[in-house]
Amino acid sequence: GRTVGELPDRQATYGKILYKKEFLDDGVLTLYKAPRSFTGENVAEICCHGGVLLTEKVLESALLCGAVPAGAGDFSKRAFLNGKITLSEAEAVIDLINAESEVQLRIAGENSTGALGRRVQEIYEALCRLLASMYAFTDYPDEDLTDLSPKELGAELLNIRKKLENLTAGYRQGHAVMEGLKTVIVGRPNTGKSSLLNGILGKDRAIVSPVAGTTRDTVEEKVRLGGQMLRLCDTAGIRDARDSVEKIGVDRAVAAAERASLSLVVLDGSVPLTGTEERIFALAQQAEHSLLLVNKSDLPRQAELAGLADRFDGVCFVCARTGEGVEQIGRLVQALYPQAVRTDGALLTNTRQAEAVGRALAAVDRAQGALSAALTPDAILTDAEEALAALGELTGKSIREDLVATIFSRFCVGK
Ligand code: GDP
Known about the structure:
Blueprint: E1 12-19, E2 22-32, E3 43-47, H1 52-64, H2 74-81, H3 87-98, H4 102-112, H5 115-139, H6 150-179, E4 181-187, H7 193-203, E5 210-212, E6 219-225, E7 228-234, H8 236-240, H9 251-259, E8 262-268, H10 277-284, E9 289-295, E10 314-317, H11 326-336, H12 351-372, H13 377-395, H14 401-408
Parallel strand pairs: 4-7, 4-8, 8-9, 9-10
Antiparallel strand pairs: 1-2, 2-3, 5-6, 6-7
This protein binds guanosine-5'-diphosphate.
């Protein structure tokens, strides 16, 4: 008996879904009146019973009444355009949807509630204040306004620079976490690398899908371990070298290890060391962190391990055959990485953000240069303005329309 507009705001109302008086289904309607909705617009959500045909009929009748299907990222884009969320928050929503590990979820969650936005905003405002006081002085020379002294200006620029640098420093971590930690498994032939890889993959059912790596012939398996998403690099190069230890130095294996965040060195604990392990250890140490996995713990130990532990970030005894010790690898990974990820969560996670901060940093550098070369305020102003514009791109304050379209096209339909 009531029109939708008369229903209470932000309350679920039960009713019948009719189209031209024809009964389709019964369901629940929730109304979010502008501006108190995600997009900032009037929103009505209809929940009906499941089932393909039924849902389709309800949807079809909504379309016949004038509704238009949402495109990719339409909701988030409208929220952004209506000033409900900043661009970095919108991007965090994409990361949230795509998150596959606890850490990814945490960073995206913090960014989506504006942690990154607040850090950027702080720098943005500092730059604004700086520009405002410089403009006041240059535009109203007669008003007896006190100019910032070059010393004060220099201190302020330095302060801004430091904050920008902090943001950039977080990018490598943020990016690595969001993309998955690149991990290589290395070891002599027959130590059990393949078995262990299978063990790790089999233990955790969170395998997403094998994705083609950036290098030809390299296939990566994504697996969740120790709260992290690992991109286990099953380097064909290292694998093919199984018939000869000498070949372990193949360029591809070296390159893979160099790019890796983590290397897992597999050692066969049931045979004495051969003396050729050194090259593998050296290779593994190219990665940021390395763990030593002593395999075949079901067999009597023959390998002499004294002095080895110090050279790795952790040692773990495993049995690839039974899967014993895989949890322990997870715990070691967990111990290695939380400290690497900052707890305030405000991390740059994508290249677009990092590039914008990089430009802001370069512009601040030029402003500092202009200041120390005692150039006219105009020169400093231009640079400071460029820095401001670059930061504005990060939050979406000043951003080209085509860029907005590109960003929101990353969403799936209806998000
Ligand atoms: P890769 O050459 O390093 O990839 O080693 P593989 O995974 O192919 O394993 C080599 C051999 O070691 C195979 O015969 C495996 O069955 C055996 N193996 C692997 N892990 C274990 C283990 O934990 N215990 C025992 N007893 N044998 C293992």
